[in-house]
Amino acid sequence: MAAAGSDSKAAKRIQAISTQLTSAPLSAATANVHPTSIGGSGGSDLKSFQAAEQQKWTAVDQYFVDRLQPKADSDPALSYALSNSTAQGLPPANVSPAQGELLSLLAKSCGAKSVLEVGTLGGYSTIWLARAVGEAGRVHTLEIDPKHAKIAQEHIDRAGLTNRVTIHVGEALKTLHAKDDSPGWHNKFDFVFIDADKKSNLDYLRYALMFTAKPALIVIDNVVRNGAVTDSTSTDVSVKGVQTVTDWLKENAASCGIESTAVQTVGSKGYDGFILARVKALNEK
Ligand SMILES: C[S@@+](CC[C@H](N)C(=O)[O-])C[C@H]1O[C@@H](n2cnc3c(N)ncnc32)[C@H](O)[C@@H]1O
Q1: Entry pTM
Q2: Which terminus has fewer CB within 10 Å in the chain: N or C?
Q3: Counting atoms of ligand 1 from 1, which one is nearest the CA of 100?
């Protein structure tokens, strides 16, 4: 168990809560209550269990970053992008170093040269992607908040990636709509990272499908939302945005030539996950 260490009392307490948690989703399902809403009188024990779990996930993330990505923490451009984002008051909604590396590996694996990103924030994921596409590659990233875009531009410039990245400031759907005109972005991209307001996920996916060359990869981030995605009664617009895009994929993936999966993740960013979709080549069965 996490954080048990030599403190056997704490270990026993966490063990007990863990057992409660294991059975809680079952009883909650029976009562049609979603597990993420369980709290009640055991709330503070549950909180300390969750804090211990988070500590473990963060430590494991760091363990692997230290060994598999030893340069990630000391990389001046990436480190500055993170520390300056915090200093400037940006929300900590960037991908983790491990997730940044994953995006980079995926983009490189499909030989991506042209990337579309929806949701720039401070440009942390943008830097990973811009490096992955290489010198001849290009990243177009969409951001609604001018303050975020300005800070991201500084980070991208400091990373020496100015020529590879274009930040489009404004409501992403408006930018995408404007690019739906000739000579727009049709068949332009081979990798798309969707990481903005979750309520518009389906619209972003539809544009992604119009704007990708085939084959292409599409990543939709934050689709698990601490498990809330399975809560059919949720009124949270972000949860509903994920459910809508997932239901759409269920109905339309086959006819649109898409194969996809969802991967649940834990780590320094908590419990979440992403959808990875591959748009097949035109002649592919
Ligand atoms: C999760 S953050 C992006 C994090 C970034 N991809 C990273 O990993 O470093 C989401 C960003 O999307 C932006 N955003 C939210 N709604 C948007 C919209 N409708 N159009 C464009 N950008 C939007 C937010 O301002 C925020 O900067």
Answers
A1: 0.88
A2: C
A3: 8
